[in-house]
Amino acid sequence: MARILIPYGTSEGQTARISDYIADVLRADGHEAETLDLKHAEHDLPGGYDAVIVGASIHAGKHEGYVGDFVRRNRPALENLPAALFSVSLSAHADPEEAEKYVAEFEDATGWHPSKVAVFGGALLYTQYGFLKRMMMKKIVGGQGSTDTDTGRDYIYTEWDGVRRFAEEFVARLGPRAAPE
């Protein structure tokens, strides 16, 4: 059994939901998994973990600055552990190449190049936005040719089977788990 930490940054909650889902998948496979919201935590990687999966969301073309700070501060530890990165954005749904570009920019800015990376679609949460943000997001999404402009509902673009596969492939690289006692 491995102890796996999932530190993440989220602006609207979808990255937190994905982190929780990954933790559930890892636990179902017999591992110990904990999530950590970096916005409300110390920026030092706690000890005692066998692996780390960092999650970050993209807003206005950038990942959260505090996630980048966490990675830069803890890069030596991240490079000495099995570690992965997942990035969450609307771009991953609408323009995967753009989402990959954001990941490359994050890697360049932090100097960290994890061995496993995934991009996941985020969520368009119209019902949780204030009036101005709801109208701005409707205009942006409509301008990109999407028909997802009904502001009376939310749109979830996360492909949960892909998230599960990412988590399963990550733990498969850790090696065989110990037999239960």
Feature tags:
181 residues; globular; 22% strand; alpha/beta; two-stranded antiparallel ribbon; six-stranded mixed sheet; 2 domains; 41% helix; 6 helices; Rossmann fold
**Helical content (DSSP H or I, runs of 4+):** 40-55%
CATH hierarchy, class of the largest domain: Alpha Beta
Stated plainly, the CATH topology of the largest domain is called Rossmann fold
Distance between the termini: 11 Å
Structural shape? globular
Number of discrete helical segments: 6
Task: Give the oligomeric state of the chains in this entry, treating copies of one chain as homo and distinct chains as hetero.
Answer: single chain
CATH homologous superfamily of the largest domain - what is it? Flavodoxin domain
Tally of individual domains = 2
| Binned strand content | 15-25%
Structure description:
With 181 residues, the chain is of the alpha/beta class. The chain has 2 domains: 3-122 and 159-172, Flavodoxin domain (Rossmann fold, 3-Layer(aba) Sandwich); 124-156, no CATH class. It is 41% helix and 22% strand. The chain contains 6 helices and 8 strands. It has helices spanning 14-28, 65-79, 91-94, 96-110, 131-143, 160-172; strands spanning 3-8, 32-37, 51-59, 62-63, 83-89, 116-121, 123-124, 155-156. Strands 1, 2, 3, 4, 5 and 6 form a 6-stranded mixed sheet that branches. Helix 1 (14-28) crosses helix 6 (160-172). The longest helix has 15 residues, at 14-28. The chain is globular and about 45 Å long. The termini are close together. The model has no long low-confidence stretch (mean pLDDT 91).
Layout of SSEs?
Layout: E1 3-8, H1 14-28, E2 32-37, E3 51-59, E4 62-63, H2 65-79, E5 83-89, H3 91-94, H4 96-110, E6 116-121, E7 123-124, H5 131-143, E8 155-156, H6 160-172
Parallel strand pairs: 1-2, 1-3, 3-5, 5-6
Antiparallel strand pairs: 3-4, 7-8
Helix pairs in contact: 1-6
